[in-house]
Design goal:
- The protein is an alpha+beta fold.
- Helix content is 45%, strand content 15%.
- The protein is built from 18 helices and 13 strands.
- Strands 1, 4, 5, 6, 7 and 8 form a six-stranded mixed β-sheet that branches. A five-stranded antiparallel β-sheet has the order 9-10-11-12-13. A two-stranded antiparallel ribbon has the order 2-3.
- Strand 7, helix 12 and strand 8 form a beta-alpha-beta unit.
- Helix 3 crosses helix 18, helix 4 packs across helix 5 and helix 7 packs parallel to helix 18.
- The radius of gyration is 31 Å and the shape is flat.
Length: 511
């Protein structure tokens, strides 16, 4: 068998592996190398080569470690990266991904690739397009644990424990007392059984003593309390988790295998995109997109040491907290209001009973209803969000609703109608609405749907990404970053082939 000395001669110049090599050769692998305790032998693949092989595998649909090993044996593109080294087996790929790419190692390499794209003139830190989607976890779909159910069962168990302790004080006064905890009670009952020489029996036809039954009941209560305490510690503010992947939360997925809207264990993936490249990512157990924006921006700033000038978001990210945070960070907010689509409907515009359609007098700080009655400001209060953000809310109350012939059309309140209005949020919403409806804002909204939603479309359709292969938040985030690094390399190759390098925005067709 005769092989060419340089097998790279057989790889076309337009092959994506050449773009991968060009980008990855610029990276600093110091963090990755520090995860190894001793240097590798000269005849085996280095840490840098393993990283390049893994990203190339994700680029070409080889996601499992056995598929990566097979590609290294039979695919000339993988052999080109190996440069004559021994083929890594699937266990080495598994250890590399699970041990050496964990923590901030994979994230550091991802942001280095983004910085390389900036050095190439592909990214300008101008407009960040963010969007989120739900991805199913690698967990049993019916292994759910619900916080409400656990709290209910835990309360019932605590009442049973209290009744049991009171009964033990009456039954065994010689070894128990009313101020004992369940652990102390169990220890006292076990000591009393040992003192009396009670032989614990099991099985059919064996009669248990009252002391044995008391010890077994106390032990079962203790085990259940520990189980419920472990569940409560796992929730960490969530409403549910999966027993097979405790970091996964049950969410509604867009792709429903049962076509019934069932909740399935998954993660919320939030991506930041610029110039069609993914420049930031976050994996969260939080179901609401609005609570994931600030963690995404903080993570991106830590990795890139830069901030984008403007952030373009969908309605799911709108909140007063996000508006205020972007203002404090000096980033221009292009956020679509949640009621934007409704405001364009005829029924909304003609409904004079909606607050948005009521005349407002800033001097008297009052709204006027269709019946000519005023809703005046009565007091202010604070409204606290799930993240702890405090919003100042003004409460307006109408004192003439009783007996009004239009009350049934206006409100379902028993007495007078009231309005809870955050003036700061309203001001933020009006300013954002003016920005997104401007000519530049319309272009940015169009690009958000093309770039951020398009990135999810490529990951799901071209890469077949529907469900994670790994379990645990850390492993899931590492797997996602491998997808994203392969995505960016593929996008750079496509834009180079199509002569579109340096193009940041898609412009509307005016012809």
């Amino acid at each position: 068998m005769v092989m060419p000395l340089n097998i790279g001669m057989r790889i076309p110049a337009t092959e994506p592996v050449r773009v991968l090599m060009e980008v990855t050769e610029r990276l600093d692998y110091g963090k990755l190398r520090r995860t190894y305790q001793r240097p590798a032998r000269k005849d085996v693949a280095t840490a840098k080569q393993l990283f390049q092989l893994t990203v190339l595998g994700f680029l070409h649909g080889q996601y499992s470690t056995r598929a990566l090993e097979s590609a290294c044996r039979y695919d000339i593109r993988f052999q080109y990266i190996l440069s004559g080294k021994h083929v890594p087996d699937h266990t080495r790929f598994a250890r590399f991904i699970q041990q050496h790419l964990q923590g901030d190692v994979a994230e550091d390499l991802f942001y280095q690739i983004v910085l390389c794209l900036h050095d190439m003139g592909e990214i300008g830190y101008e407009h960040l397009f963010a969007d989120g989607t739900k991805a199913e976890a690698n967990a049993n779909r019916y292994s759910f644990v619900w916080e409400k159910s656990v709290s209910k069962q835990q309360a019932k168990l605590l009442s049973k424990v209290a009744a049991f302790q009171a009964e033990m004080v009456r039954t065994f006064p010689q070894c128990t007392s009313a101020n004992q905890s369940l652990e102390q009670l169990l220890a006292a009952l076990a000591a009393e059984a040992a003192r009396q020489g009670v032989v614990f029996v099991q099985g059919k036809g064996k009669r248990k003593t009252s002391l044995q039954r008391a010890v077994e009941t106390a032990r079962s209560y203790q085990q259940k309390l520990l189980k419920y305490k472990g569940y409560q510690d796992t929730f960490q503010g969530r409403k549910s988790f999966s027993k097979t992947d405790k970091d996964a939360t049950f969410m509604r997925m867009k792709e429903d295998h049962m076509q019934g809207g069932q909740l399935k264990p998954g993660y919320n993936l939030v991506l930041g995109v610029e110039a069609e490249y993914i420049v930031g990512a976050l994996v969260s157990s939080e179901r609401s997109d609005s609570l994931t924006l600030l963690p995404l921006l903080a993570r991106m700033e830590a990795g890139l040491k830069r901030r984008h000038r403007a952030v373009v978001l969908d309605a799911g990210f709108e909140s007063e907290e996000n508006y205020a945070a972007l203002l404090d960070r000096g980033q221009e907010a292009y956020i679509k209001p949640k009621n934007y689509e409704k405001t364009k409907e005829r029924a909304f515009r003609k409904n004079a009973f909606l607050r948005e359609n009521m005349p407002y007098d800033p001097e008297s700080d009052a709204y006027t209803c269709p019946a000519g009655k005023q809703l005046t400001a009565q007091y202010e209060t604070n409204r606290k969000s799930k993240s702890g953000f405090l919003s100042r809310v003004t409460v307006y109350v109408c004192d003439g609703c009783v007996g009004c012939p239009q009350k049934s059309l206006c409100t379902r309140a028993k007495e007078n109608r009231s309005l809870h209005v955050s003036k700061r949020f309203d001001a933020f919403r009006r300013a954002s609405l003016a920005r997104i409806t401007s000519p530049h804002g319309i272009v940015l909204r169009m690009n958000r749907s093309i770039q951020s939603e398009g990135a999810f479309g490529v990951l799901k359709e071209d890469y077949g990404f529907r469900r994670f292969l790994r379990r645990g938040a850390g492993n899931v985030f590492t797997e996602l970053l491998l997808y994203l690094m392969a995505f960016n390399v593929s996008k750079l190759h496509a834009k180079s082939t199509q002569k579109r390098c340096g193009v940041f925005l898609h412009l509307p067709d005016t012809g």
